[in-house]
Amino acid sequence: MDSPFGKRPRVIDMSPNLPPVTIAIVNDYEVVMQGVAGMLEDDPRLRVVELDAMTEPATPVDLVLYDAFAAHRRESDLSGLLRDPRCGRVIVYSWHTDAAQVREVLEMGVHGYLSKSLDAEELADALVRAYAGEQVVEPKLITDDLELGDWPGRSAGLTPREAEIVAMITQGVTNEHIARTCFLSINSVKSYIRSAYRKMGVQRRSQAVLWGIENGLQPKPLRVEGPEVSGL
């Protein structure tokens, strides 16, 4: 299947005699990282060795998969990862597939941009191709009814987009900054906020911040390494 950014290359099959590609998953939310790790755990070509929330990988890895959920510090986060010699190649994983945003991130020097519309097999194949040296771009269209792993606020009925915006509100981010970061119009941001507030049973921003803190939308530093990762 061709993408707006070129023809999709063939899948690269790695020899079973080669060691698996090591991966660190970076995001501010443990539940998000666990969901991504679960998608990759059955592929023998890949091994998730570290989960990092609000921190950079501690040990050298072949790939860093940067999950962009609620990542209002995206530019500084990615710049730090790209400079870090422990990070072999840096891949962005996001449901924001606006062409301008994809190009902006690629121009920073990342080695790939993957859509959350990919299923587990497609995601694994794309990561293997990225490890082989390809700049992999899979910006498939994201719709609100896709199952995208897990996210904080899901149990309360928040969609991924609503949860992301509430998470950023919980972190003190303004509507204007949310709109710029997520490549949404300010009216779209306000629409997501209204629908989220109805589900949360709140009316004011201060109430939303308190709700977010009480429901896991306030990020906390975390690092999980080694055997503990596969046991999640």
What is the distance, rounded to the nearest whole angstrom, between the alpha carbons of the first and last residues?
33 Å
CATH architecture of the largest domain: 3-Layer(aba) Sandwich
User: How helix-rich are the residues, as a percent range?
Assistant: 25-40%
Give the amount of beta strand, in percent.
15-25%
Which class of secondary structure composition applies to the elements? alpha/beta
Number of strands: 7
* Overall tally of domains: 2
Largest sheet: 7 strands, mixed
Q: Helical stretch count? A: 9
What low-confidence regions span 5 or more consecutive residues with pLDDT below 50?
Answer: 1-11
Can you tell me the CATH topology of the largest domain? Answer: Rossmann fold
Q: N-to-C SSE series?
A: EHEEHEHEHEHHHHEH
Using the coordinates above, name the CATH class of the largest domain: Alpha Beta
CA radius of gyration is: 17 Å
